[in-house]
Design brief:
The complex is a heterodimer of chains A (about 375) and B (about 290). The longest helix of chain A has 27 residues. Chain A has three domains: about 80 residues; about 190 residues, no CATH class; about 25 residues. Chain A is globular, with a radius of gyration of 26 Å. Helix content of chain A is about 40%, strand content about 15%. In chain A, helix 3 crosses helix 4 and helix 4 crosses helix 5. In chain B, the strands form four sheets. Chain B has a seven-stranded mixed beta sheet with strand order 3-11-10-7-6-4-5. In chain B, helix 1 packs across helix 2. The chains are: A alpha+beta (about 375), B alpha/beta (about 290). The structure holds zinc ion (ZN). Zinc ion (ZN) binds next to strand 14 and helix 6 of chain B.
């Protein structure tokens, strides 16, 4: 029976073989290719890129395949890969105002320069299962051909800013324009806003969503309007010291959300609107909106608001618990053997009970 | 071979040299301030947080090709996660591995200190889940760091005292808090309190908490005192039995359930210690004499 405790190596090998087999599923069904995942499960790919903090649709698709569709496992694969990559430098801040938008909406104005663009959204679909999708090689009518038009789309919150109606976002001092990097320094509190935003953008979508939702239901309520939500492609530029000028090194798709929130004003500040900000890789608008709400809730100190003791206001609570790779690792580690500690607890409980028994007997005897 | 050498697709021992230097700096600071939790920029490793990433990063930062590496979990070399970590280093560092405590230069452990005394030059690397001994009394990291800075440990004594009031003794059986060199209260990681007296040793002890981004250390021959009260002194604890395989009466024992009628046997948690004793001819109540081959 003691032998049962042995055999760890063999057990691991067999488990891995079984996992490979389970991943493939029924061999009579065609194998899923990485490009299929990249093209047809694009929103899953986007989530993996966002929370994995690595913009690479092919690698994200591969991770999803390897993880059997478990997105947190896929994010973990991407994070573990990312950490081995050399750091060449930092890009210049991307200009989301110059984004080529596939989608751009504002809930605060009926119309805005550049227009409202719905883009590929589920928003007004009826959530009825489309059994036609079950058929393979389904012929869909080709969309009307037309050159993509990308009119200029200035940022909506800037219109408010011109009137001084919204709080100005202060640009960092030149000396601080290299923000701390969450993946290169230990998180220490209090965290500056760039660091908080870094944590939120790679934070678990479900966690950030629930935190945001809690603010809507009254835990640090601060009514948000979606000033603007935009999704599209931006160029990424870097300064190459050898060349002495900036060059575009690639493009990324981003989702950006700016909320406009109420603010009553204080002794020193006239009444004006405030902002929450979300910026996430890929088409990930649920996440970007959630991020903006949580960002706003975390700014209570900056705006001299009351600490209402709400979870979404608690920087330490939010930042220490939003990362699903940390959370899932620690949660799942309780599957590992703990019998040494359990043995110690067993002996302690037995001892305390024995002593209590003896004390009772002694009392009875007296 | 040198430490810069690439093994396959990854750098020797997986981490890049810059990251290793960052970890070594944290280790040196930890050794200079025994028991103090040094923040470090923990990396994402190819195994999950909570599964030994802190220990793995320390081992990766200190291993050299000449090392002999041993990994134990629950005292045993053959537990699944110990196997997984050992294989990781066999692959990315190609160091020699051993199950023999006496021959290892670096031992990574989870939840145990080997029974055999470590000698000078040996390094014991602990995997730590929650490095903060005050965490379950005060959930905020901002607050607990303040408490350490001010040496404000009253809360811990209150907790221990409440245990005594309720149970008649201190009801902590593992991860039993210690004070290091009379200054920092430290979590020795979830080792059974049976192991606490061994924290004063000739070897170097390094503690890594990956998810919590903390490293701390105990240099050789450092004073480590388990917290207690004069009238309730610290007590070691183990099953009051002998190992059924090797007959050892002084080693920490695992209780193994052998049938559904309450049958059980006790075996050394430290598998290498047990093997050594059996090879030396010791036989427990249910053991079989080793072949004299
Ligand atoms: Zn034994």
């Amino acid at each position: 029976m003691y032998v049962a405790v042995k055999g760890g190596e063999k057990a691991i090998d067999k488990a891995h073989e079984w996992l490979d087999e389970a991943r493939r599923g029924d061999p009579a069904v065609a194998e899923l290719s990485v490009p299929q995942i990249r093209e047809q499960l694009a929103l899953a790919v986007n989530r993996v890129m966002a929370e994995g903090s690595l913009y690479d649709p092919d690698l994200a698709a591969l991770a999803i395949k390897q993880a059997r569709g478990d997105l947190i496992e896929a994010i973990f694969l991407i994070r573990a890969y990312r950490t081995t990559l050399p750091r060449f430098g930092y890009s210049l801040p991307v200009d989301t105002g110059a984004m080529e938008c596939d989608r751009r909406i504002s809930a605060t104005f009926k119309d805005v320069p550049g227009g409202q663009v719905l883009g590929p959204t589920f928003d007004y679909t009826h959530r009825l299962l489309d059994f036609a999708l079950e058929a393979e090689r389904l012929e869909r009518p080709a969309p009307e051909a037309g050159a993509a038009v990308h009119p200029e789309m200035p940022r909506v919150t800037e219109f408010l800013n011109k009137e001084g109606l919204i709080q100005d976002e202060v640009a960092p001092a030149p000396a601080e324009d290299q923000p701390d990097d969450l993946t290169r320094q230990p998180l220490e509190l209090p965290a500056a806003r760039p660091l908080r935003l870094q944590a939120l953008t790679r934070g678990d979508e479900g966690f950030v969503l629930s935190m945001a939702y809690s603010t809507q239901r009254g835990y640090a309520k601060n009514h948000p309007f979606v000033g603007e939500l935009r999704i599209g492609t931006v160029g990424v530029e870097a300064e190459i010291p050898e060349l002495g000028f900036d060059i575009e090194i690639g493009e990324v798709v981003l989702t950006e959300c700016e909320t406009v929130n109420q603010f009553l004003g204080s002794k020193s500040e006239p009444p004006q609107f405030t902002r929450g900000y979300g910026l996430v890789f890929g088409q990930t608008e649920r996440k970007a909106i959630s991020m903006a709400l949580v960002d706003r809730a975390l700014r209570w100190k900056e705006f001299g608001e009351d600490d209402k003791g709400a979870p979404a206001q608690d920087e330490e609570f939010v930042l220490y618990h939003c990362d699903n790779i940390q959370a899932t690792g620690f949660l799942e580690h309780i599957k590992l053997p703990h019998y040494v500690d359990f043995q110690s607890e067993l002996e302690l409980v037995r001892k305390i009970r024995r002593e209590a028994d003896e004390a009772r007997h002694q009392e009875a005897a007296e | 071979m040198n430490a810069e050498q690439i093994s396959g697709e990854y750098n020797f021992a997986y981490l890049d040299e810059q990251t290793k230097r960052m970890i070594r700096r944290a280790l040196l600071k930890g050794l200079a301030i025994p028991g103090y939790q040094v923040p470090f920029a923990s990396r994402e490793m190819p195994m999950p947080y909570g599964w030994g990433t802190g220990g793995v990063q320390i081992s990766a930062a200190i291993l050299v090709p000449e090392d002999r590496f041993k990994v134990i979990d629950q005292g045993a070399d053959d537990t699944t996660n110990a196997v997984s970590i050992r294989r990781f280093f066999e692959k990315v560092a190609q160091v020699e591995t051993t199950e023999k405590t006496a021959e290892a230069t670096v031992i990574q452990t989870r939840h145990r200190i080997p029974e055999r005394d470590l000698h000078e030059g040996q390094v014991l690397v602990y995997q730590v889940p929650i490095p903060e001994p005050l965490r379950f009394l005060e959930p905020s990291e901002v607050e607990t760091r303040k408490m350490h800075a001010l040496e404000e440990y009253g809360l811990m004594h209150v907790k221990l005292y409440e245990d005594i009031a309720r149970h008649g003794e201190i009801a902590t059986s593992y991860a039993y808090p210690v004070k290091v060199e009379g200054r920092y209260v430290m979590d020795p990681s979830p080792i059974p309190k049976f192991d606490n007296p061994k924290l004063e040793m000739a070897g170097i002890q390094l503690f890594g908490a990956g998810r919590e981004q903390r490293i701390y250390a105990i240099p050789p021959h450092t004073q480590v005192v388990s917290l207690d009260f004069e009238d309730y002194p610290f007590q070691r604890m183990k099953a009051p039995k002998c190992c059924d395989l090797c007959g050892a009466g002084e080693s920490y024992l695992d209780e193994v359930i052998t049938d559904d009628a309450g049958g059980r046997m006790y075996v050394c948690s430290d598998t290498d210690f047990c093997r050594e004793r059996r090879e030396a001819g010791h036989v427990g109540a249910l053991g079989v004499a080793e072949d004299a081959a």
